[in-house]
Amino acid sequence: MSTRWLDSQEMRAWVRLVAVLELLPGVLDAQLRRDADLTHFDYHVLVVLSQAREGQLRMTALADRTHATLPRLSHVVRRLEDRGLVARSPCPDDKRATDARLTEAGREKLAAAAPGHVATARHNVIDALTPEQLDQLATIADAVLERLDPEGAVVKPLDRQA
Questions:
Q1: Domain spans of the chain?
Q2: What architecture (CATH level 2) is domain 8-128?
Q3: Which of 38, 90, 133, 158 might form a disulfide with 42, Cβ 3.0–4.6 angstroms?
Q4: SS (H, E, C) 16-32
């Protein structure tokens, strides 16, 4: 099989996408660390728990929804638990499993962190685009997500919240 190299138009788009993927996580992480003493992944875990029924999920389901390995997630949840933002308990349906639950302090932390996070997303992405470009961005992201996540596991739970 021969390699189908990128032409100049494809390379221009690809290089810019890679640059956004490299720069944006650092910008989001820096703001959350500075303003809320959370990493972007910490924030994501709190958001996912806040969207779950009763603010609680099995650790395996939380790992699936955050796209984290169980060891990484366990480490992060333990740190959040030490800060009183999340509580873990044995799953009542399966004693081998563990549930993670967002505490009231976790809800408060998320509510306090959200305005700064949204302002950062707005400043760096949303307000840089016209309404037409926002529609194009959503369409482009949908096309790529169709390949990366054909079941919609990442976006469907978020769309329900919109």
A1: 8-128
A2: Orthogonal Bundle (1.10)
A3: 38
A4: HHHHHHHHHHHHHHHHH
